[in-house]
Amino acid sequence: MRKEPVLQVEDLRVSFFTDEGEIPAVDGIDFYVREGEVLGIVGESGCGKSVTSLSVMGLIPKPPGKITGGQIKLNGEELTTATEKRMRTIRGNEVAMIFQEPMTSLNPLFTIGNQLMDATLIHKKGNKKQAKQRAVEMLKLVGLPRAEELMNDYPHQLSGGMRQRVMIAMALVCEPKLLIADEPTTALDVTIQAQILKLMKNINAELNTAIMLITHDLGVVAETCERVVVMYAGKIVENGLAVDIFKDPQHPYTKGLIQSVPDMRYKKQRLYSIPGNVPRPGSIKKGCRFAARCDFAFERCMQEDPPLYDTGEGRSTRCFLFDHKEAKEDDNQRTTVTS
Amino acid sequence: MAEPAKLPEQDWEEQQEETLSPWKEGWRKFKKNKIALAGLSIVTFFIILALTSPWIAPQGIDEQNLSIRLQPPSSEFWFGTDDFGRDVFSRVIHGARLSLTVGFLAVVGSAVVGSLLGILAGYYGKWVDTIISRLFDILLAFPSILLAIAVVAILGPSLQNALIAIAIINIPNFGRLIRSRVLSVKEEEYIMAARAVGMKDSRILFSHVLPNSMTPIIVQGSLAVATAILEAAALGFLGLGARAPQPEWGAMLSASRALLVQAPWTLVFPGLAIMLVVLGFNLLGDGLRDAFDPKMKT
C-alpha cells in the first residue's frame, strides 16, 4: 500500500555564505517521507543531515545560510517560498522537531508544565485549563509517571531521558503530521536510548506520525526505520529499504559505515574505520566526493561526479560501480560461458 | 497508549520534597554567605532609614538655629551641628532618602534602557548591533564623570539632572552586559526549540531570552547602585547635583569642606554614610553574583 508523501524534498540546495565564499552544505538532495513512515537519514557529522532538517523547519540561520534551490513540499505546500508568518503556523503544528541535547532544550527558568502549555497555546485555541489538561495527557502519553506533579518541576530536576520525553511530548502536543528527530538519542545512555526509540516507534504506530530520524548511529536506524537515506558531503549516496541496505550495502561509504559498527562476535579483528574525514563542503570540485576515501575508487571517480544510479527494488546508489551493472554482469556471464 | 517505561522512581522521591526554582536555589546559596547577608542588612538598614526619615529624624531638613552653630557631637546632637546650626544627624538621615532615590532610579533607568538596547543588539545582530554597539562605544569613550558633568552642563545643575546624567553614563555598562549574555543565550537549544514550536520572535525575546539574561542585570544593578550613589555624591560635591539646602551627602561634604579642621564632624558623618551604603551595596552585589552567576553553577 503506497501512502501519500507527507514531505517531499526535491533537489534541495542549501549554502552558507561566509567570508571564504559560498559553502554548499546540502547539494541537491531528493527524498520523501510517506504518511506514518519512519525514514532514517544517516551520515557522519558535517554531511548536511541537520542542515536538511533545519531547512524543512525553515530554521536555517540566515544569513549566512540560504536555500539556493529546490523545493520542500509539506502536504503539497511549498515551504521554501513560504512567509515567516506562515512558517510559524506550520512549525510545531504540522511539523515538529526534537533536538539532540535534551539537557539544554528546555528553558531552565520555567516549569515543565509552563513550557508544555505554552507550546499548546501557540497553535490551539482554548484556555489555560484545557492546555494544562492537554499537557498532562501528553506527559502520560510519553510514559512519564506522576504527570501532574511533573508539571510543576523545573527541567534541572529531571534526568536526560525524562527531558527527552518531555521534548517529545512538547513536539507532539499539536499532533503534527511529521516529527523531525535530530539525533534524539545521541546524548542519552544506551538503556535510555532504547526506551526513547521504543517510545518513538509507539508514537509512530499509534498516532500515525511520520518520523524523519536523523542519526549517525546505524544501530538506531536498524531498530526504527523502514527506509534509509545515506548522506555524504551534502549529497545522497544511497537510499533504499533499511533491511536491504543492511543486508547488501551498495555504496562503498555505506559499506564502510556498516563495517565500522563494532561487533562482539569478531573481537579479535581490528574495528574498521573509513580512512580520512568528511571533506569540507565545497572543497571537492571534481569527481566523486567519496573518491579520496574509497577503497574501490578508479580513474573515472576522480574525474566525474557519479549520478544516482537506480539499482532496482526502489534502491539507488551514487557510485560508478553500478553504472552499466547489468552490462558488466552480462559480460562476466559471457566470459564464463566461453572459457 | 505508549507503554510507560520504568524510570528511576527513587531518585526523584528525594527531589520531590522541594520544588526549587532557580531563583529559590540562588536565594538558598545567598543565605549561606555571611558577608553578603551583612551587605543585605546594611542596605536594608539604609532603605528603612530612607523610607522613614521624616518620622525618625529629630529635626527637619533645613531647621537652622544659629545659636548652636558648629556644636561637636553630644547627647543632644549625635553628629554635632553645622555652621547654620542644623543637626547633622537629621540631615544625614534625610540624605539617605535622596541618595538612595538617585541610586535606584538612575540604575533602574539605565538598566531598562541598556537592557532593551542590549537585547535588540544581541538578538538581531547585523546593522542593529553595529549601530547600538558603536553608540555604547561612544558613551564609554568619555570618562564617566566627565560625561556626567557634560550632561549636567547641558541640562542645568539639579539633583534630577544629576540622576539623568548618571543613568545615561551607566547605559552602556548594562547594554554591553546584556548584549553578550543574549549572544550566548540565543544559541541555546531551548531558543531553537521555542522557534521549532512556532513561537514568535518577540515572544522568544521576552519570555525566553530576557528572563535568562536577568541574573547579570540584577548583579550588575546592585553594584551599580553603589557607583551611582558615589557619582551622585561626586556631582553634588562639585555643585552640579543637589543644590544648597538639600541634604545630599555629597553636597553636604562640599558645603562643609572649609570646616574640615574646625568641625570635622560635619564631614565625617556624611562621608561615613556614603562609605557604608556603598560598601553595603557592593557586598550585596558580590553575594548575588556568587549565588546567581551562571558560571558558578554546575
From TrEMBL, chain A:
GO BP, sorted A to Z: peptide transport
Protein name: Peptide ABC transporter ATP-binding protein
Pfam families for the chain: ABC_tran (PF00005), oligo_HPY (PF08352)
Membrane topology: Peripheral membrane protein
PROSITE patterns named among the record's database cross-references: ABC_TRANSPORTER_1, ABC_TRANSPORTER_2
Subcellular location: Cell membrane
Domain ABC transporter: 7-258
Family that this chain belongs to: Belongs to the ABC transporter superfamily.
SMART domains, per database record: AAA
Gene Ontology cellular component list: plasma membrane
Organism: Jeotgalibacillus campisalis
Molecular functions per Gene Ontology: ATP binding; ATP hydrolysis activity
Keywords: ATP-binding, Cell membrane, Membrane, Nucleotide-binding, Transport
InterPro entries linked: AAA+_ATPase (IPR003593), ABC_Ni/Peptide_Import (IPR050388), ABC_transporter-like_ATP-bd (IPR003439), ABC_transporter-like_CS (IPR017871), Oligopep_ABC_C (IPR013563), P-loop_NTPase (IPR027417)
Automatic annotation (TrEMBL), chain B:
Transmembrane segments: 35-57, 98-123, 135-156, 223-242, 262-285
Entries under InterPro entries matching the protein: BP-dependent_transpt_permease, MetI-like, MetI-like_sf, OppC_N
Major subcellular site: membrane
GO CC annotation terms, alphabetical: plasma membrane
GO terms under biological process: transmembrane transport
Membrane topology: Multi-pass membrane protein
Domain of life: Bacteria
ABC transmembrane type-1 domain location: 96-285
Keyword line: Cell membrane, Membrane, Transmembrane, Transmembrane helix, Transport
Compartmental location: Cell membrane
Entry annotated with the keyword Ribonucleoprotein: no
Pfam families registered for this protein in UniProt: BPD_transp_1, OppC_N
PANTHER family named among the record's database cross-references: D,D-DIPEPTIDE TRANSPORT SYSTEM PERMEASE PROTEIN DDPC-RELATED, OLIGOPEPTIDE TRANSPORT SYSTEM PERMEASE PROTEIN APPC
Family membership: Belongs to the binding-protein-dependent transport system permease family.
Protein name: Diguanylate cyclase
Native source species: Jeotgalibacillus campisalis
